[in-house]
Automatic annotation (TrEMBL):
Pathway: Cofactor biosynthesis; adenosylcobalamin biosynthesis. GO terms for molecular function: precorrin-2 C20-methyltransferase activity. This is Precorrin-2 C(20)-methyltransferase. Residues 6-222 form the Tetrapyrrole methylase domain. Keywords: Cobalamin biosynthesis, Methyltransferase, S-adenosyl-L-methionine, Transferase.
Length: 238
């Protein structure tokens, strides 16, 4: 089948709109459809806030908001993802390129990964291109002025979970650890830092590089804090 549009996964960076790449900017300008994660209550997603500085409906583009299911129910997930891919496919089959924007990088803990897999399974004829973006942990390193790894040092990028022993081993086996989405288990992680005498080696950032950025270099202040979803912690042992 000829004339099918290309699906682009566009990384728009960690928050600062100036941290998108030249290639991302060009493709956002060229694509007739810009897709973005849409919240059910109508508020703008993080990626949408970044991208809207570069593209608007008034530019003649279709701004395609897509709602992604926040559930672990397999049946619901399969049904909702199939519907989302169907919506995107309708544009692609008309020969329209679709630029799907995501914060950070599209192939690093991103919604686009699942979009890509489901689209490939349903429509293997679709060309899919990923455009790298600046990830939040790189934005945090810049903001903190902290080299994450040098020479033979080892770094772990770890999704924070309530598996205490796994989090402990991550800290013990790396020179630097970045805990992603750490807010939900922050008290436990701080407790581990105390045990391992690393509490002074940690820093926390929320929505790093954005206008809503908040940074804490003393994590003791956060033992009872309720932070947002896009919060990470950097622990550098040396």
């Amino acid at each position: 089948m000829s004339g099918i549009g290309t699906l682009y996964g566009i990384g728009v960076g960690p928050g600062d709109p100036e941290l998108i790449t030249v290639k991302a900017f060009r493709l956002l300008q060229q694509a007739p459809v810009v897709a973005y994660p849409k919240k059910r209550m109508g508020s703008k997603s993080y990626a949408h806030q970044i991208a809207e500085l570069y593209v608007k409906p008034s530019d003649g583009k279709e701004m395609l908001g897509l709602v992604f299911p926040m559930t672990k129910d397999k049946d619901v997930l399969e049904r909702e993802w199939a519907n989302t891919v169907k919506i995107v496919w309708e544009r692609l089959r008309q020969g329209k390129d679709v630029a799907f924007v995501t914060e950070g990088d599209p192939l690093f803990y991103s919604t686009f990964i699942h979009m890509m897999r489901v689209m490939q399974a349903a429509h293997p004829e679709v060309r899919i291109v990923s455009v790298p973006g600046v990830s939040s942990f790189l934005g945090a390193a810049s903001r903190l002025g902290l080299p994450l790894a040098d020479g033979d040092e080892q770094i772990g990028i770890i999704p924070a979970t309530d598996d205490r022993e796994a989090m402990r081993q991550a800290l013990l086996s790396h020179d630097c650890v970045v805990f992603l989405k750490v807010a939900k288990v922050l008290p436990m992680i701080i407790e581990l830092l105390r045990e391992l005498d690393l509490v002074d080696k940690a820093a926390v950032a929320t929505k790093v590089t954005s206008a809503e950025e908040m940074v804490w270099t003393d994590v003791r202040e956060l033992e009872r804090a309720e932070l947002g979803y896009l919060t990470l912690m950097v622990v550098k042992r040396t």
